[in-house]
Amino acid sequence: MDIKSYKDLIVWQKAMELVSVVYRVTDKFPKVEMYGLTSQMRRSAISIPSNIAEGRRRSSRKDFRNFLLTAYGSGAELETQVEIAKRIHIAPNADYTQIDELLLECMRMLNKLIANLQPNS
């Protein structure tokens, strides 16, 4: 497949899907968390496809890799925030399964893409 745009990257598409799911799940959080965990999780999720897109538009493989590393870091943040939400039972009726699955998939793809962009690879 010929990659013409970051939108052609499966990892970007999956990350966009992840953002939608995070928004749906965090809509179930108490309103008191609007500026707390809800905001943090949404920003972390948004950061993943945003950094993939920005990095893909950069002129070098090195820049792209650096932005992918940032996206990967945002994924780790989201992973931690989801774990916190689960542990404190912030939304007892929330189902985190889809977030967990999409996040794992995105992290694996990012890891592989980062490895493929290593110098001398």
Give the CA-CA distance, first to last residue: 20 Å
Q: Say what the CATH topology is.
A: de novo design (two linked rop proteins)
How many distinct folded domains? 1
State the fourth-level CATH superfamily.
23S rRNA-intervening sequence
Unreliable parts? none
Identify the CATH class: Mainly Alpha
Tell me the CATH architecture: Up-down Bundle
Which oligomerization state do the chains in this entry correspond to? single chain
Count up the helices. Answer: 4
SSE topology string: HHHH
Helix content: over 70%
Proportion of residues in extended strands:
under 5%
Helix-and-strand structural type: mainly alpha
Q: Overall 3D geometry?
A: elongated
Q: Give the integer mean of the pLDDT values.
A: 94
- Gyration radius, in Å: 15 Å
How many DSSP E strands?
A: 0
Main β sheet profile: none
What's the quick description here?
The chain is an all-alpha fold and 121 residues long. It has helices at residues 10-26, 37-57, 61-87, 97-116.
Notes on the structure:
This protein is an all-alpha fold. It has one domain (6-116): de novo design (two linked rop proteins) (Up-down Bundle), CATH 1.20.1440.60. It is 70% helix and 0% strand. It has helices at residues 10-26, 37-57, 61-87, 97-116. Helix 1 (10-26) runs antiparallel to helix 4 (97-116), helix 2 packs antiparallel against helix 3 and helix 3 packs antiparallel against helix 4. The radius of gyration is 15 Å and the shape is elongated. The model has no long low-confidence stretch (mean pLDDT 94).
